[in-house]
Amino acid sequence: MKYFKETLYDSICQEFRIDKLYFEHKTDLQHLMIFHNAQLGRVMTLDGVVQTTEADEFVYHEMMAHVPLFAHGSARRVLIIGGGDGGMLREVLKHPVEQVTQVEIDKAVVDMAKEYLPNHSAGSYDDPRLNLVLADGMDFVRESGEQFDIIISDSTDPIGPGEILFTESFYVAARRCLREGGILAAQNGVPFFQPDELQTTWKRLSPHFESAGFYCAPVPTYYGGFMVFAWGADDPSVRDIDPQVLQERFAASGISTRYYNPAIHSASFALPQYMLDALDEVD
């Protein structure tokens, strides 16, 4: 019996039984693997770290997409950095957006996910509203003349190709690409084991947005409890949308979800005390 041993941390790890190996390949940028696990369904890993599983991906993708989109209320142009598995694109396209630009650095991730993780993208890569750009996300936000209502940074951890997407330079460039009233949401790790990542992001992000902070959700596959998402906006009111307004927007959308709802949306901005304590330690 073969097992996949995650290598994100030095002193602890989690293992996943490989019931069937679908795909394994070393690209110019990273090592990709897709395998089946009886409990989690298909599992995707990059460079020894679990990225997504069929069983619980809906929590991550719904919270990364619907929180900023329903908070904004009238987004028409969305930028996704990363997200090659297609789950984020699937959720964003449930909204009446006019165009989604997705910038993915590794075409092999998109191709692999379409073939071996078809339920993630669920045909979203064929949507005419998609503009798929194969490029480095940092280069795109630094050089692009386009502006967006929502920017979602669906990156890997801040190691390897994803490291640049956690720098102050990225937040500054992303801010430049946001329209007035726009919102940035970004994957930001599991603070129980990665408090320094939370603190570093706060130091780098908060000077550049009127409203900056974090919201969270429990994604079972991501070992260590709550995962957090960084939040940046220039309109503080979008952070504290009236629950009744959220409910009306959600009902009018007709979108079906498995985790997200307006009550979860509002509650997700309430951080556990250990996260608040970590943020209080930031100079």
Task: Provide an overview of this structure.
With 283 residues, the chain is an alpha/beta fold. Helix content is 31%, strand content 29%. It contains ten helices and 13 strands. The chain has helices spanning 57-72, 87-92, 107-116, 118-121, 137-143, 168-176, 195-205, 243-253, 262-267, 273-280, and strands at 2-5, 15-18, 20-26, 31-37, 41-46, 49-53, 77-82, 99-104, 130-134, 148-154, 178-187, 211-218, 226-233. The protein has a seven-stranded mixed beta sheet with strand order 9-8-7-10-11-13-12, with helices on both faces. Strands 3-4-5-6 form a four-stranded antiparallel beta sheet, covered by helices on one side. Strand 7, helix 2 and strand 8 (99-104) form a beta-alpha-beta unit. The longest helix is centred in the first third of the chain and has 16 residues, at 57-72. The chain is globular, with a radius of gyration of 18 Å. The model has no long low-confidence stretch (mean pLDDT 94).
Gyration radius, rounded: 18 Å
* Average of pLDDT: 94
The general outline is globular
Determine the strand fraction and express it as a percent band: 25-35%
End-to-end gap: 49 Å
Largest sheet: 7 strands, mixed
Order of helices and strands: EEEEEEHEHEHHEHEHEHEEHHH
- Strand pairing plus helix content: what structural class? alpha/beta
Total number of strands: 13
Strand order in the sheet with the most strands: 9-8-7-10-11-13-12
Low-confidence segments = none
**How many DSSP H or I helices?**
10
